[in-house]
Write a structure and sequence with these properties.
Layout: H1 6-15, E1 21-26, E2 39-45, E3 51-55, E4 69-72, H2 79-91, H3 99-108, H4 112-120, H5 122-131
Helix pairs in contact: 3-4, 4-5
């Protein structure tokens, strides 16, 4: 196992904050019962870069720096953004798949959270308006 530099450790702590959701990509621990695709919630990052996770399956095994691979899951769509999407839709001013038109309408309505949501993740926005869920 390698030890991260201070910069790498700081970056890891900034990336994997407590409460963030993650998915296991791979784990090198031969005794771990976790399989790729398992999901959990980050509880913290320690001094050697291990991301501590409370897995949905009940395990609390951490993801070791340089050995295991996890990926961040997108946060759920907030109730504010959901309400803003419905309000923009109700105006009839924009095809909801025309993200530029939706952003213009949202901006005019001062729905800045929605403008940022679309800007940050157009794919997640499209998935949300298609099926009411955020992919991930």
């Amino acid at each position: 196992m390698s030890i991260p530099s201070k910069a790498a450790l700081d970056a890891r702590k900034a990336r994997y904050k407590p409460g963030f959701r993650v998915e296991l990509v791979s784990m090198t621990d031969p005794y771990a019962d976790l399989k790729p695709g398992e999901r959990g919630t980050v509880t913290g990052v320690d001094a050697v870069g291990t991301v501590h996770i409370q897995w949905d399956c009940g395990s609390s095994l951490g993801a070791a720096y340089g050995a295991d691979e996890i990926r961040l899951l997108p946060p759920p769509v907030s109730e504010t953004v959901k309400a803003q999407i419905l309000a923009v839709r109700a105006t009839g001013e924009a095809n909801m798949f025309d993200t530029n038109a939706v952003q213009r309408t949202a901006n005019n309505m001062e729905f800045y959270e929605l403008v940022c949501f679309i800007e940050d993740d157009r794919k997640a926005y499209s998935q949300f308006i298609l099926n009411g869920k955020r992919e991930g």
